Amino acid sequence: MPCQIRALSVVTIGIALSTLAAGGFSGLSTEDDGFRWKVHDEDRPKPPVISVENGIPSDAVVLVGAGSGTEALRSGDQDCRWSFEDGILTVKSGTGDIHSRDSFGDCQLHLEWKFPEGRSVNGQMGGNSGVFFLDRYEVQILHTFENESYADGMAGSIYGQFPPLANPIKPAGQWNVYDIVFRGPRFDDEGDLVRPATLTVIINGVLVQDHVSLLGPTRHKARTTYEYHEPVGPIRFQDHGDPISFRNIWLRSLPEPQMAE
What we know:
Elements: H1 10-21, E1 52-53, E2 56-57, E3 61-64, E4 73-75, E5 78-79, E6 83-85, E7 88-90, E8 98-100, E9 107-114, E10 128-133, E11 137-142, E12 176-183, E13 186-187, E14 193-195, E15 198-203, E16 206-213, E17 236-237, E18 245-253
Antiparallel strand pairs: 1-2, 3-18, 4-5, 4-8, 6-7, 7-18, 8-17, 9-12, 9-18, 10-11, 10-17, 12-15, 13-14, 15-16
């Protein structure tokens, strides 16, 4: 039976509204309001220091980068079978999807991809790939520069669910930049859904998905619903038969969203 989102109680909603009125879920509070931290509490833990070198945060896991190989990726239970040269990973048609060897949950993912010059594309055919979180939630990769398809299959769509807010894809031969924040769903002890997965997607500096709540895992030509699954899983990149190239793929695991303490 499909999981159902548990309804919020009146008490829960009231607490949430009160918290927002008091300063939101950023932890702002007064000394006697029952929260753990006072406003501007000097004892409150400070954020970790993260340096950025060559565009890569110091706490990032690099899946594909300059000077790296494909050790972080796999084709089934074998080594990655896609082409790799000079830090650029290219789909090798017919070899199948590839996965990260490690599993991840909530994360910030950065990747860059391009469609080759001199190749024709028509709708979903010719320039198609995708990136999947937890091996099941897809953000569409598609060459949509002067190319249209169904709205919930355009580049940056949550495939089969939500069209992108804009189409900022560059011409063939130019690199597109995806920056994605993924939050996985949460289930209770009985396996019922208590919070859906969410995605925020920025393409080439343009917001195309704004903290969208997913309806469930990706399905093709079908409505979807949630079923319980583990909170972590591999990142998957799709072989749709087209020679899409990738570079500079890294991700940062994210802690739980800040709530009032």
